[in-house]
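User: Just a sanity check before I run the rest of the batch. Below are the structure tokens for the first item. I only need the designed sequence back.
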């Protein structure tokens, strides 16, 4: 399904959703669904480009975060938080990245029970190569927004993400 088809499906089902669950604010439901469609759209244009490498958007994102962590690297737990993966998926992703020699996994020098993940030179090269390939695609994806609109959207998303912590606490208390 194409991203604009997903958008059409969201719009087409909105009225039925509101009729079925009228006490749930329509704007909140629409925002959740639109954010999900946008996220799927990112995966839809990154996964096909990455397919020859055997990587997915999630594994590439993990590699980018590991690279951004510098020579000190990062931990699997930190990667889970930043990439939005559970520990089982992150273990699988890191196994693939290590097998392809894109990251090095080693014991933490301060605590041998922990592992450190560092992007290798091959990992850096792969990120740079695909950054060049993705740049025009990402530019097109966000091309309908002006620079000011992009900054405004970033600001609103940051506020939204900040309020998610409170929502997570509420959900944990209800569980």
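Assistant: Here's the designed sequence for the first item:
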């Amino acid at each position: 399904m194409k991203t604009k088809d997903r958008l059409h499906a969201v719009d087409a089902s909105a009225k039925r959703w509101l009729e079925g669950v009228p006490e749930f604010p329509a704007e909140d439901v629409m925002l959740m669904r639109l954010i999900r469609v946008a996220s799927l759209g990112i995966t839809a244009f990154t996964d096909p480009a990455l397919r020859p490498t055997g990587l997915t958007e999630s594994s590439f994102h993990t590699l980018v975060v590991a690279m951004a962590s510098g020579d000190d690297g990062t931990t699997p737990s930190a990667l889970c938080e930043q990439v939005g993966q559970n520990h089982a998926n992150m273990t699988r992703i890191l196994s693939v990245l290590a097998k392809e020699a894109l990251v090095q996994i080693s014991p933490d020098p301060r605590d041998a029970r922990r592992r450190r993940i560092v992007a290798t030179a091959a990992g850096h090269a792969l990120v740079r190569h695909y950054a060049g390939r993705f740049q025009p695609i990402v530019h097109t994806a966000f091309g309908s927004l002006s620079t000011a609109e992009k900054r405004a959207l970033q600001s609103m998303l940051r506020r939204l993400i900040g309020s998610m912590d409170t929502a997570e606490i509420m959900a944990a208390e209800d569980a």
